[in-house]
Design a protein that fits this description.
Elements lengths: L15 E5 L3 H12 L3 E5 L5 H8 L4 E3 L13 E4 L4 H13 L3 E4 L12 E5 L2 E5 L6 H14 L3 H11 L1 H7 L3 H13 L1 H7 L3 H13 L8 E6 L10 H9 L2 E4 L5 H4 L7 E4 L7 H17 L3 E6 L9 H10 L3 E5 L4 H9 L11 E6 L3 H6 L2 H4 L4 E6 L5 H10 L7 E6 L7 E6 L3 H7 L6 E5 L6 H4 L21 H4 L3
Parallel strand pairs: 1-2, 1-4, 2-3, 4-5, 8-11, 8-12, 9-10, 9-11, 13-14
Antiparallel strand pairs: 6-7, 14-17, 15-16, 15-17
The chain binds S-adenosyl-L-homocysteine.
Length: 484
């Protein structure tokens, strides 16, 4: 059973459902069916006292005797709840022959539909299924939800149901309606309902509906998506992604992170490529402006942190100049994530008192860096976008006096499932990167602390080292001997 089940809430009001079996299990199923307004047709030689009572009251129909396929004539669904495997199988077979969905209690194999574990708050129903694999897990989650959701959710759904037509008329546009609901849910109405002040809640909702407050102007939220592991998103990032109408994301943002966003938000990839950098940035500005001016909530989602080599500053200046309101949600930048996930403390009392974040992605940036300062010892360099210019990088640092034996770690796809860490010394930096075919996105960490990757690694595979054949004289160096 590899494919997922298709979840479905069935309207069984006034519809006949065959229940085969008259014991305690059948009684529970019948009770659930009655709750849904269905007409249970129970077939069994005998009934529990309660089932018998319902039969007397005419709430259910009783067919005495043993199962025959014609019991399935004219029903919408079938539930087999006997404790005889033979009978259950016969019911399942007969149902399949008639293209009827059948549930065989406690037998996922025989069932063509499953009854989920359920949390109910009035008309609000939360159904949980483990696809028949682990009903205990579904029940466990149901208990957790039971404690999480108080009864007022039912009142809220009922209240909004009563006002549904008015709300639609007041906010005919989907986006505006959704914002109204979001504000409402974050406001006083749910609190009043929790306090069992239903009348006051209704008044408050009426007030919100008749208030002539302007529909919201669009906004842009600059959100740091972190390095890839969705667990590194902040709660504020999640909230912003949940409220977004439009998400403009970089190519660097992982699929795992994007999957956390509101399902029906429009996702637009605005990944930057090496060519056409500046036009692309203009396009991004134009897109932000267009959607914000249309009153939408725009999330500009960037890898890592928006203010670390993310051009977040430029984008905000642009928004400011065009009077678009904005917010910023910081993210975990690659240097922090790569360091953490490769076991490299960026500062260390014994090895590094400082940290520099630099980028070295093109000749221009290489030429404008202060190499003398970068070559100082007892500091850590975190180099972004550095896969290409490694030769030049090494030459300049060594020329300014940085020891050739300074350890480095290249962290590729940091924090992701595909993370690789490649280590060595400044002397063999470019060759080692080439040997292991390190690809973007990768972050270079250079400094004494990088050697700690061998002892402190905890995520993914152990660090890879320089190829032994290339530097036979290095083979006994501590950073190499431990990496196999
Ligand atoms: N704003 C981003 C950086 C964007 S520049 C941040 O704060 O992280 C893009 C560079 O970041 C890449 O070339 C790479 O050097 C680095 N980078 C981003 N994500 C990374 C990851 N998951 N693993 C390694 N490096 C990463």
């Amino acid at each position: 059973m590899s494919a997922a089940l298709f979840p479905l809430f069935a309207d069984l009001r006034g519809r006949a459902v065959r229940v085969v079996g008259g014991g305690a299990v059948a009684e529970r199923k019948v009770e659930a069916l009655l709750h849904a307004g269905a007409l249970p047709h129970v077939g069994a030689p005998t009934l529990t006292p309660r089932l018998a009572q319902w039969a007397e009251q005419g709430r259910i129909a009783w067919q005495p005797g043993s199962f025959t396929p014609d019991w399935l004539d004219g029903v919408w669904l079938v539930i087999a709840a006997t404790d005889e495997g033979e009978v259950n199988r016969a019911v399942a077979d007969a149902a399949a022959a008639r293209r009827l969905l059948a549930n065989v209690v406690d037998d996922a194999e025989l069932s063509s539909f499953q009854v989920p574990a359920l949390v109910e708050r009035g008309a609000l129903q939360i159904a949980i299924s483990s696809g028949g694999h682990a009903p205990m897990v579904a029940r466990h989650i149901r208990r957790q939800l039971e404690t999480l959701l108080d009864e007022s959710w039912g009142s809220l759904v009922a209240l909004l149901g009563r006002q549904r037509a008015r709300i639609r008329a007041r906010f005919p546009e989907m986006g505006a309606r959704r914002r109204f609901f979001e504000q409402l849910l974050a406001g006083t109405v749910p609190r009043l309902l929790r306090q069992r002040q239903d009348a006051a809640a209704e008044t408050e909702l009426q007030r919100a509906l008749s208030s002539t407050a302007q529909a919201h102007a669009g906004t842009v939220t600059l959100v740091g998506a972190g390095p890839g592991d969705a667990g590194l998103l902040t709660l504020n990032a999640l909230r912003a992604m949940n409220e977004a109408d439009v998400i403009l994301h970089d190519r660097l943002v992982s699929a795992e992170v994007l999957a956390m966003a509101r399902r029906d938000a429009t996702r637009i990839e605005v990944g930057k490529s090496a060519q056409g950098h500046s036009t692309r940035q203009d396009d991004i500005h134009a897109l932000m402006l267009e959607h914000a001016r249309a009153g939408r909530r725009v999330v500009r989602l960037k890898g890592g942190d928006p203010f670390v080599f993310g051009r977040g500053g430029e984008e905000l200046e642009f928004l400011k100049a065009h009077c678009i309101a904005f917010e910023v949600v910081p993210g975990i930048t690659a240097a922090l994530a790569c360091a953490a996930y490769s076991g490299i403390p960026l500062t260390h009392r014994d090895h590094a008192q400082g940290l520099r974040l630099v980028t070295a992605h093109c000749r221009d940036s290489l030429d404008t860096l202060d190499w003398q300062a970068l070559a100082q010892e007892r500091q850590t360099l975190a180099v972004y976008m550095g896969v290409a210019g490694l030769e030049t990088f090494r030459e300049r640092l060594i020329a300014q006096g940085r020891a050739a034996a300074t350890p480095f770690a290249l962290v590729e796809n940091g924090s992701r499932r595909t993370q690789r860490v490649v280590t060595g010394t400044l002397a063999d930096l470019a060759e080692t990167a080439r040997h292991h075919q390190v690809r973007s996105p990768a972050l270079l960490i250079l400094g004494e602390v990088a050697a700690l990757a061998h002892t402190l690694h905890w995520h993914g595979d152990a660090p890879l080292a320089a190829p032994a054949s290339q530097h036979p004289d290095n083979i006994d160096a501590p950073t190499l001997s431990r990496a196999a």
